[in-house]
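Researcher: We plan to redesign the surface later, but first we want a full-length starting point. Tokens attached.
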């Protein structure tokens, strides 16, 4: 490791990242997405009570408002005490990065097995810590605006190749982060069933389109970035300042109806093919938790242009990528019926994205667009160079021409009713305890019967 990266590591890591830390919640100490070094934030509900903010720890959830009420976090300000009683993370996001870091340190102190606060918390864990199975996870953020990018050059190249074998990438791709404005109202939390959309599609050679349930329903495995800090309308965020505007990440499934998309997308891009549902994981892994897993951006291949100055920053190139593997699994209704576990379809890594989160955010604001707390940026499908790292069925089955076989003997070109898609994300690095994002899952319901 170079002296430069050591310096960076020393700057960003603190006592909460110490790999020797253990929790008095035993399930947090081995094989879990949520060791005491992670401490992601989410919103949960117990029975019919109001939603409130929790921290995932092993197979349990720490109730932050209960911790404050019991005097286990004596220094918590009134603004934080108020924010953690809300049914979304938005109020907390508005308080800024210092509040987020204060929660991380307080939760670490409270959940460690070797601190005075930890011992007190353990002695009164009833009503302070809930088993994950006892609670309902809610959509963590009331998303104001949602933008989806197209940051994987491997995904863009594969999709382009299907349409333009000799010239897969459009000339703008390596200069400008491509994105479109998505729909915030249909963002749902993991576990929410997804209704197969109906829409206008036009078969090849047909004289006119028809309206019917999508026959080419797909998922897209993505990472989502929540904005924490706002920027003022008309005032772009510089690339070096962009990381401070990101609150944390989630897993995101950008469900896509390829047949509807193919007919509607020209000339303004995706519309109803995407807006029927987007699923997010319930836990938001903070930027602080990700610090040990920030990594350098892969060098651009020879001949690629350098990023333009407003997208170029040495620090971002050094540590701006996130080493996050995203695994996609599928379980058909038949597999569920006969007790076969979900089967892995692919595994990609967000490290392979062509653009960093900071570049996406800086570009988004570069013309003056204001982003606010709770806005969501999707990375675009995370695909890598190998077949097994393709993050959607369109690529994996090459537009349906190379079907995937399931353990039951069933095959899939695209998703069938009853299929459940499950995404899992994990970060691992030398000298750090591995962390995960939890699951992002959704099962496909049959389309509603339509009149036409
Ligand atoms: Ca997408």
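Model: Full-length starting sequence:
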């Amino acid at each position: 490791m170079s002296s430069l990266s050591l310096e960076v590591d020393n700057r960003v890591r603190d006592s909460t990242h110490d790999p020797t830390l253990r929790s008095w919640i035993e399930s947090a100490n081995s094989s879990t997405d949520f060791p005491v070094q992670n401490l992601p934030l989410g919103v949960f509900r117990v029975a019919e009570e109001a939603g409130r903010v929790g921290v995932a720890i092993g197979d349990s959830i720490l109730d932050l408002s209960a911790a404050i009420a019991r005097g286990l976090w004596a220094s918590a300000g009134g603004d934080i005490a108020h924010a953690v009683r809300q049914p979304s993370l938005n109020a907390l996001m508005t308080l800024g990065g210092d509040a987020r870091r204060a929660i991380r340190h307080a939760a670490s102190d409270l959940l460690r097995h070797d601190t005075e606060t930890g011992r007190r918390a353990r002695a009164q864990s009833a009503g302070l810590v809930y088993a994950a199975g006892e609670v309902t996870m809610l959509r963590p953020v009331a998303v104001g605006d949602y933008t989806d990018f197209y940051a994987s050059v491997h995904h863009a190249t594969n999709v382009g190749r299907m349409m333009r074998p000799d010239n897969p990438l459009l000339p703008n791709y390596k200069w400008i982060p491509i994105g479109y404005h998505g729909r915030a109202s249909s963002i749902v939390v993991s576990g929410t069933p997804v209704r197969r959309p109906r829409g206008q599609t036009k078969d090849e050679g047909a004289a006119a389109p028809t309206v019917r349930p999508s026959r080419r329903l797909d998922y897209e495995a993505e990472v989502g970035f929540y904005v924490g800090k706002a920027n003022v309308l008309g005032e772009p965020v510089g690339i070096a300042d962009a990381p401070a505007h990101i609150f944390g990440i989630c897993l995101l499934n950008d469900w896509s109806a390829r047949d509807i998309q193919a007919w509607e997308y020209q000339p303004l891009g995706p519309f109803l093919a995407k807006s029927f549902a987007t699923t997010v994981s319930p836990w938001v892994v903070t930027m602080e938790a990700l610090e040990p897993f920030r990594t350098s951006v892969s060098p651009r291949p020879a001949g690629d242009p350098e990023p333009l100055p407003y997208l170029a920053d040495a620090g971002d190139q050094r540590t701006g990528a996130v080493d996050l593997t995203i695994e996609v699994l599928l379980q058909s209704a038949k597999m569920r019926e006969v007790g076969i576990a979900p089967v892995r379809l692919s595994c990609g890594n967000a490290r392979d994205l062509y653009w960093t989160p900071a570049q996406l955010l800086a570009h988004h604001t570069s013309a003056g667009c204001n982003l606010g707390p709770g806005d969501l940026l999707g990375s675009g499908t995370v695909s890598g160079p190998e077949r097994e790292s393709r993050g959607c069925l369109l690529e994996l089955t090459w537009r349906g021409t190379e079907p995937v076989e399931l353990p039951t003997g069933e095959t899939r070109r695209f998703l069938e009713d009853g299929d459940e898609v499950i995404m899992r994300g994990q970060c691992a690095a030398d000298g750090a305890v591995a962390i995960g994002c939890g699951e992002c899952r959704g099962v496909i319901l049959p389309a509603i019967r339509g009149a036409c």
